[in-house]
Amino acid sequence: MPRSVNAVASRARRKKVLKQAKGYFGRRKNVWTVAKNAVEKGLQYQYRDRRARKRDFRKLWIQRINAGARQYGMSYSAFMGKLNAKGIDINRKVLADLAMNEPDAFKAIVDQVK
After folding, report:
1. At what angle do helices 32-70 and 92-101 cross, to 10 degrees?
2. What's the CA dihedral at 19, 23, 26, 28 to 10 degrees?
3. What is the predicted pLDDT for the residue at 13?
4. What domains are there in the chain, each with its CATH number?
5. Element (H or E) spanning 28, and its range?
6. pLDDT the model gives residue 114
7. What is the pLDDT of residues 67-100, one digit of tens each?
8. Is residue 31 within 8 Å of 18, Cβ to Cβ?
9. Measuring CA to CA, which of 9, 45, 92, 98 is 20 to 30 A from 15?
10. How far apart are CA 97 and CA 65, in angstroms?
11. How far is the C-alpha of 100 from the C-alpha of 63, rounded, in Å?
């Protein structure tokens, strides 16, 4: 009995990977073995960076809140400590947005905390 190979599924699998490699440079976009490695590595980066993005945004928000608080003579840690002590529940994302785009509202929060 001849060996049965599922060529339809193999070709579909390869086409799927080559489609994911669309836009890559050189042989990474059209040579199966190179494209497969490039796509696997890209998916690893994608998985890692979905988590890193959350850390990066939190760092950015903290920097913006710190810059806004220092305009009114307060450090970030002192501001957040007093904010929690007063029981004001605003997350860092909203505080950073207020510090950037609504300085009057941010100043009102700082005045309430002082």
Report:
1. 70
2. -40
3. 96
4. 7-113 (1.10.1900.20)
5. none
6. 87
7. 999 999 999 999 999 999 999 999 999 999 999 9
8. no
9. 45
10. 9
11. 11
At position 49, the amino acid (one-letter code) is D
Burial (CB < 10 A; 0-12, 13-18, 19+), residue 109, is: buried
Identify the residue whose tokens are 């193999």.
10
- Say if residues 79 and 110 touch (Cβ distance below 8 Å): yes
Global pTM reads 0.81
Q: What are phi and psi of 78, to 5 degrees?
A: -65, -40
- How many Å apart are CA 69 and CA 40, to the nearest integer? 44
DSSP code of 4?
P
CB 114 within 8 A of CB 82: yes
Which among 59, 51, 112, 67 has a CA at the least distance from the CA of 86? 112
